[in-house]
# Entry
Amino acid sequence: MSSLSPAVAASSVSTTPQNTINIGMIGLGTVGTGTVKLIQRQSHLALKAIAVRDAGKDRGINGLDTSIVTTDSMSVATHPDIHILIEVAGGIDEAKALIEAALNAGKHVVTANKALIAQHGPELFALAKVNKVAILFEAAVAGGIPILMPLKMCLAANKIQEIAGILNGTTNYMLTRMMKDGWTYQDALDKAQALGYAEADPTSDVEGVDAAYKIAILTGLATNQWVNVDDMTIEGITKITPQDIDYAKRFGFAIRLVALARLEGDKPDVRVHPMLVSGDHPLATVDNEYNAIWVKGDAVGDAMFYGKGAGELPTASSVMGDVLALASDLKAGNVHVAVAMEVALQGASAVHPIGETMNRYYIRLTTSDEPGVLAKLGDAFGVEQVSLESFLQLPSDKSKGEASLMIVTHEAQEAKVQRALAQIGKMPATRDVACVLRVL
Amino acid sequence: MSSLSPAVAASSVSTTPQNTINIGMIGLGTVGTGTVKLIQRQSHLALKAIAVRDAGKDRGINGLDTSIVTTDSMSVATHPDIHILIEVAGGIDEAKALIEAALNAGKHVVTANKALIAQHGPELFALAKVNKVAILFEAAVAGGIPILMPLKMCLAANKIQEIAGILNGTTNYMLTRMMKDGWTYQDALDKAQALGYAEADPTSDVEGVDAAYKIAILTGLATNQWVNVDDMTIEGITKITPQDIDYAKRFGFAIRLVALARLEGDKPDVRVHPMLVSGDHPLATVDNEYNAIWVKGDAVGDAMFYGKGAGELPTASSVMGDVLALASDLKAGNVHVAVAMEVALQGASAVHPIGETMNRYYIRLTTSDEPGVLAKLGDAFGVEQVSLESFLQLPSDKSKGEASLMIVTHEAQEAKVQRALAQIGKMPATRDVACVLRVL
# Structure
């Protein structure tokens, strides 16, 4: 149980219940603009100061008092009148310094900053605790979808065994269009950028880093042990071809960028990579820019949370869920919701090494169309005790003398499969190991 | 804002933080057994008394101290040592009397009793408030799925515009099997009973009453106005035939028992009936005994919550989510989560009359296969200004001289569609208006 007494915690801001809760905000981009609109609806919330980079820019927000907009972000973070600081500017170093200053000044903090929480969560949680204030971050994972509070409170009686999430809307949009419209990766990226789903530099999305931050946070909340994103295996979608997607379909699979946390072993098996998802798995039906988090708990069984993972108002909805919970606490003169949501870390955890993880694999090979190839393939897998679940040889391209083979393995250890594939790669008959994907 | 001060509220049970939270329980059936198993994991919870009907029955629970089991349920509800009463016995009158006694004795209450909350929620919430204790009921809606806390807290910044739920696992199992295996209604019911999904008397499930309680509760939480289940249109699945399901498929629809709440008008439009759900709607993919709640909020957009709607451990998971939140409150010496979850009713609301609701309709007709029938049908709809979205005439059964017609209308007022159908029913060419279903 937390040693953070609600009565004491509240006293750091006020010893008496508050009727109006004053708010400061860092950042007035997409999410910030949505958040201002939602704050304007709440008569008990007063926006006192907003920090921006360019104070002259018109944000198109009706009724915004521009006199509260400043470029002096530190003055907002430590503004004497505010009870809650909302951080929706993103970035790491400056955001961290501002949030630390706010916590030290006795402000509660609500942030949507997944990179900051994933990388520096433990320090910030400790600093919040020392200062008897709360730091909440529902919007940092899966945008508008309520997931952190349901996971931490509603499912508190469960041992969380597995979490599998589609946590990046940009890549899910791209994979959906590649699957449904036959687009190439580049087509899909161009369109995602044109629609504003992808940044000019899409690296964090397409390389899986954004999703990695989110699954690291979910793992921390589910296990009370923080994992280091740098220890995780993170693979993006840049190598996925329309052919992979088409062939996967023939096996009844969709290809999704899955953020996975298997939590039953000694060390959490946490990673992000594209996976084949069986058509009857709930995650297979999550299309376009939507996100979903599939959770397996030992009491609840499997549950899924679905919705918009990004966007002005969806993300602002989650920011405001946290703000309203804190405001309710502050009006009552305590911070109990914050206590219930407190991340009581029991330390850090190493990540289960990828080579020791168990997975099913989908493998697509091109071989020369000659007798004896199947037997050699079978030997290579057999030596490593990797057994095959299904096998499909497509009609050969006679002109090239090639055969295309698709294999789905039973569950096998990653290192053994990689050794078998290395062996297969060396076989003279092998033209190309075209695609290797894990199967959810 | 609630006038329930956490400090005062906690004083009704204890003026000092509690290290061990004592629990009494009414009912030791399926959910009760699961709940005991989950309580046993928590070292800070102590089960002090359990009321059952048959004290001699072996429940097969390891480590259960049978000396705490009694048939005197009132002695459990008002047990001097308990802080929280869990009610998982079901029923109305006796459960209500026991919960009222517990609230009056200063006990917090956690219940899974959807019928009781739907029918008597406002009285019980008022009584809890007077006694400065909490009544929580996450398990009453959609079993293991976290929905009440996410709806009320995480989505607090939203105006909830619409809720559409598959809230009854028994009927969803039956409809899934009818759709996938071509079973008749009776086949599906027999199998559901054999599997323990359906009661010996399945009326509450198959007639939609169970789902009606749940959507009434969700409506109350989303609007702070309570609706009377007796005012709702409630239609079950007993008239659905394999033919309806097969024909719906041809239009790309699944048939689901949908509990619907449209919340944008003056009065909530709340009802339960079978609906055609488009194959690309997230609810269409919710199969078998699973439940799901699709929520549309003006900030979050659409979100969905999916999981097991019944069963020993899934339902116990939700019961325990509430118990652990209360226990955390009590250990800290206040009941703030309970305050945040308090249903601050602003009164009751009439339900929007079904005749005034707007829906799309799927209509299946058998007519005599003669010239001029289409024109007459068109006239009947046209007079009522019901326009048609799609129309399919199946190959006729020449031997009977019959034609089968399927129609999907654009959105139209229920009363107008019913008048058009009454007119069509009187036409000499009409053999049968075989099926009329609303479309989600």
